[in-house]
């Protein structure tokens, strides 16, 4: 194990993949100097401009090039920088990358990874603080992962680069600098596998990405101050979803709280809540409770940002409500 940041862990994963397979290329804006959060630092020096490719400021062009490269035998990693910028390439993502295997009858695959920084960080304001994972999980043909720690960041990225289908890799801005132990060498976390971060008996907390960190704090507060034993599950992979782990936990606790930074209305938690209610209704002792952002653009003002986006206290309050 080696201690490193989330961003460094993704560099490590990319470097290993590029050394192993010369078909892996990286393309995006300003990546030659390391990227917005250092997630590509040092790669140009080792692999050169033929494989670390700076692109014009056009997300549609980046994704068009990535889709074409993937269809013709390469394995591109396309950086969209901030998540909102993917909206300028939705035709390429939704109508081309996601559908090509189906439309070609399985003759053509699109093995690409779309990397994008999502979530809130230091008043990045409305156009740079988005959590749009529900858009991508809604699209058949896309896989979506959202790691919460450096070890999973490395392992999920390695698995994403191995996959023969397009994978949307969401890296929350607020945790790219967080440090933690990471397995050295070849480390993979399978897509579609959740992690039980903390075991509990009274309520299940379902989180992913940065909200897992707040869920960890919430679980400690619930135990120390309220006598509630919360089981914390880090979904890690939003699609494919490890519903077996989710169901196993809720069957034991009888209660579920789903927490994410994204807007509550139409968020990923709504889909997950519906499935829990449909498939596990007989095991529930209370309605599923969701925690998400208020229906407003993310404010620039720090106090307003905190008022819109839920924190640890919101998870604690939701768990108390579910357990009462």
**Annotation, overall tally of beta strands:** 14
Strand content: 15-25%
Based on Cα principal axes, name the global outline: globular
Strand line-up of the largest beta sheet: 3-2-4-5-7-6-12
- Which structural class fits the helix and strand makeup? alpha/beta
Instruction: Please mark out the parts with pLDDT under 50 across 5 or more consecutive residues, or reply none.
Output: none
CA radius of gyration: 19 Å
Name the helix and strand elements from N-terminus to C-terminus, one letter apiece: EHEHEHEHHEHEHEEEEHEEHEHEHH
Which percent range fits the helix content? 25-40%
Can you count the helices? 12
Q: Mean of residue pLDDT? A: 96
From the structure above, extract its key features:
single chain; 324 residues; alpha/beta; seven-stranded mixed beta sheet; five-stranded mixed beta sheet; 12 helices; 14 strands
């Amino acid at each position: 194990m080696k201690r490193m940041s989330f961003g460094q862990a993704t560099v490590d994963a990319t470097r290993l993949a590029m050394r192993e397979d010369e078909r892996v290329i990286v393309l995006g804006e300003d990546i030659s100097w390391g990227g917005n959060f250092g997630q590509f630092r040092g790669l140009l020096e080792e692999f050169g401009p033929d494989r670390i490719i700076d692109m014009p400021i056009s997300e549609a062009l980046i994704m068009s090039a990535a889709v074409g490269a993937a269809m013709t035998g390469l394995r591109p990693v396309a950086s969209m920088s901030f998540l909102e910028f993917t909206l300028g390439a939705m035709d390429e993502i939704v109508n081309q990358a996601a559908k090509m295997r189906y439309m070609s009858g399985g003759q053509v695959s699109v093995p690409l990874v779309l990397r994008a920084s999502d979530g809130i960080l230091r008043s990045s304001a409305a156009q740079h603080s988005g959590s749009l994972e529900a858009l991508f999980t809604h699209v058949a043909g896309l896989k979506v992962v959202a790691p919460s720690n450096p070890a999973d960041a490395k392992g999920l990225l390695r698995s994403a680069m191995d996959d023969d289908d397009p994978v949307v890799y969401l890296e929350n801005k607020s945790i790219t600098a967080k440090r933690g132990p990471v397995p050295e060498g070849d480390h993979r976390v399978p897509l579609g596998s959740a992690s039980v971060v903390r075991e509990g008996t009274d309520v299940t907390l379902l989180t992913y990405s940065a909200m897992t960190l707040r869920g960890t704090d919430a679980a400690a507060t619930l135990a120390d101050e309220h006598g509630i034993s919360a089981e914390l599950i880090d979904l890690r992979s939003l699609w494919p979803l490890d519903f077996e782990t989710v169901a196993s936990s809720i069957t034991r606790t009888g209660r579920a709280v789903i927490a994410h930074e994204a807007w509550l209305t139409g968020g990923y938690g709504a889909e997950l809540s519906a499935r829990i209610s449909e498939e596990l209704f007989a095991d529930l002792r209370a309605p599923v409770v969701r925690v998400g952002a208020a229906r407003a653009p993310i404010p620039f003002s720090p106090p307003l940002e905190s008022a819109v986006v839920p924190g640890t206290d919101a998870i604690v309050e939701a768990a108390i409500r579910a357990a009462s």
